[in-house]
Amino acid sequence: MADAGVDQEKIQAIGSVKNAALSVIEFLTIAALFFGLVEVSFSPNTVTTLVWPPSSFALVVILLQGNRIWPAVFSGSFIPYVFAGHPMLEASLFAIGAVVAGLTGAFLTKRWSTTASLFKTARDVAIFSFIAFLPVAAISSAAALGASVVAKETDLASSVVHWATLWLADGIATLIITPVILLWVDVLSASFTKRAFFEALASFIFTAAIGLVAFSPIFAPERVPSDVNFLAYRSFLGFFILVPLLLAGLEGNRRNAAMVAFIFWAMAVWGFSASTFPFSQKDLTAAQLLLFAISISISLPPLILSNAIATRRNSEARLLDSRKLLEQQLESTGSELGIAKRHFEILTEGVVEYAIFVLDTGGHIASWNSSAQKIMGYTTEEVVGKHFGIFFRPDERRTGEPSRALEGATKRGKHEIEGWRVRKNGTPFFVTGLISSIHDDAGNLLGFANVLRDATERRDAQEKLVEAREQLAMAQKMEAIGKLTGGIAHDFNNLLMIIGGNAQIFQRLLDPKLPRAIEAIQTAAKRGESLTRQLLTFSRRQHLSPAVVDLNAAIKNMRTMIESSLRGNIVYKEELEDGVSAVKLDLAELELAIVNISVNARDAMPNGGTFTLCVYNVTGEDEICNKIEGPLVAIVCSDTGMGIPPNLLSKIFDPFFTTKEVGKGSGLGLSQVYGFAHQAGGTVTAQSKVGLGTTISVYLPCADIQIANKEPPAKTSDQPQRPSVLIVDDSAEVAEVTSSMFEQLGYATVYRDSAEGALDLLADGAKVDLVFSDIVMPGAIDGVGLAREIRSRYPKLPVVLTTGYSDAAQAAPPDLRILRKPFDPDTLRDFVQNFGKMSLPNEPAHHASRGRA
């Protein structure tokens, strides 16, 4: 281990010695070169020759070897001046000037450019020219001028001219020499072909020949025989230097251009030093300016031209390489695009429920899948290239909807679609989908992707669902209103029963001078009865007396009533289809419904018009058949009136809703029609257009039995004795009025206030020919329960029920007769006569004491 350490130290020591030796050699070599240059340049003709190469060589050495080499530059510049016998201060100024000029030029070059790229562009050449004439030449010439002033070789008066001469000498030498050294050092470190070598050698020889002929003392006129006439024009031969300079420049060969300029410049300096034509010593200033002009013109333009050509060739080479690379990438991208396109086509063709197509930036269709053809109806050949606005409705195209859709997709990246579109055959269909913008990696818009789905069936299903929900909500609302109105009507009927009954008693008993007041009371009672009847019909709590009815015959019989409901300026038309099926309904309720519709039609036609009533069998194609099962008959009433606005059409069947003036309508007319139709197992619809009129359609289920031939009821023969009626009602006032009516008709009455009291009375053996009971009563047994008990215990005893409203009436047996409240003596007489078979006076009756409990 110790031997290995010793060997390593020896190797490091040898390496250090080697590096030190190389540094010394480098130092001595550079110092010797500077010594030689200074010796060559240091002569009495230094000022007049306009050549001072040490400054340019100092710049080159520092650029190549770095700032560490400045001692060699200083030594190589200082020693020749000392050997020449110049004072130490003068020699120091010269050396310091060379070192500072080299360091400053190198610093600026590395700051503004690089050594490797110093002559590659016109900008770099401009930077080098600036550095050569200002920092380098200015500092070196200033130092030389200071040395001359110290040595008293130049006075202050002529110092400016002397400095300018030195500045031009340094600047031209730097401009000519520095590019040659730097460019050739760079080339020698790389490969160098034979062709390039011989081309350069031929160019250099040709340049030297031109320089010799044009400027060298060898071919001076005084040395050439006079018979050689072309030598008289030798100054013009210098223009042939343009040939090698242009060749080097057009080839982009900066190295050859710099070398040709250096060789030609060297020949010119030789001629200037020898004072040969055209550099005459008689006019030194003109000769200096000519040499300066030649130096500038042969150095900068060819170098700039060669840089431009080289840059252009390098750019062309890079462009060619880029083109090849792009072609390869394009080929690869095209292949990948073809594969992606095929995959996209397979994907889009596999999506059967969605129309997928691509638009360009202008909205024109670029691709089309089979599902789009199936949904829209257009083939690929028909639609590609056309604007996608052909799918929009005409009104949407006029308002610019397609453009707004594209703008929305461009701004937000996507635009959701939901609306109606038009197929090729012109039929509309409802679509949902999305328009998405397509961008490249740089964010540039490439087009749009459209994905649409035919949602017509789904929309129809949703609309039906919404309609069903609205119908359910309406039914629930109507049910709630019906319960409320039914309850009100029950109590109201009792009041009307008392008012109407007592009015009848007053009319019979009081002085004949009061008939008008009594008639007013009866009219109010009748009006209240009609209002209650409409409420009960709407709430479907009104007890009906259904019978099989021939609608055509019933409508014909109502003609007079309908015409009286209309106005004289309204034409009434009937359109009754033959063979209309029979229906089972309460004829009185039908008449009331028709009258209510007629009155509404009359009020809708103040200036006259036509009221048409149609009756026909509904066919299976009618949409209403999907809502109600079984065959239907329609009663359609149409007018040509003002019509109903759409926002009010859905409210016309609501109770108490009216568009008439205050006091002109109760708002229950169409509510009665609604309740009658639904209680009969049907429905009612309304259609209206403002300014054209309104149509009310009542749909009723057909009866499955034949129309019964009604025979006139047999009149009840007078009974030899007064029949007895048991009146059962929880309201003593209502029972009082009812008893009075029965007594007016010739009946004896017995009163009990509950079903239990009535059963106890019958159990005691009271003689009763008829039981007349209210349905709604307190206690465990209501009127329906009482009827069931009497039928069970006394099968031959007739029972009649009466009510203003009761859900319990729905549970009554079909053969149990129910009389609606309120009623008058005439209504009661007709009802009892029709019910006479159940109250025969000849049958044995139960005995009971007459009176009221």
Q: Any overview of this molecule?
A:
There is one protein chain. This protein has 27 helices and 17 strands. By secondary structure, it is α/β, with parallel strands linked by helices. Helix 17 packs across helix 24. The protein is rod-shaped, with a radius of gyration of 64 Å.
In short:
This protein has 853 residues and is an alpha/beta fold. It contains 27 helices and 17 strands. The radius of gyration is 64 Å and the shape is rod-shaped.
What would the average pLDDT be, to the nearest integer?
A: 76
Q: What spatial form do the alpha-carbon principal axes imply?
A: rod-shaped
Distance between the termini: 143 Å
User: In which range does the helix fraction lie?
Assistant: 55-70%
Radius of gyration: 64 Å
- Unreliable stretches, pLDDT < 50, 5 or more residues? 44-49, 707-719, 837-853
Separate helix tally: 27
- For this entry, what is the oligomeric state of its chains? single chain
Largest sheet: 6 strands, parallel
Structural class category: alpha/beta
Number of β-strand runs: 17
Strand-helix topology:
Blueprint: H1 2-41, H2 46-49, H3 54-65, H4 70-83, H5 88-112, H6 122-150, H7 159-188, H8 194-215, H9 234-237, H10 242-250, H11 254-273, H12 284-350, E1 354-359, H13 370-376, H14 380-383, H15 394-398, H16 401-412, E2 414-422, E3 428-439, E4 445-454, H17 456-509, H18 515-539, E5 547-549, H19 551-557, H20 559-565, E6 570-576, E7 583-585, H21 587-604, E8 609-617, E9 632-639, H22 646-649, H23 669-679, E10 683-689, E11 693-701, E12 724-728, H24 732-744, E13 748-752, H25 755-763, E14 770-774, H26 783-793, E15 799-803, E16 818-820, H27 825-834, E17 851-852
Helix pairs in contact: 1-3, 1-4, 3-5, 3-7, 4-5, 5-6, 6-7, 7-11, 7-12, 8-11, 10-11, 10-12, 11-12, 17-18, 17-24, 18-23, 21-23, 25-26
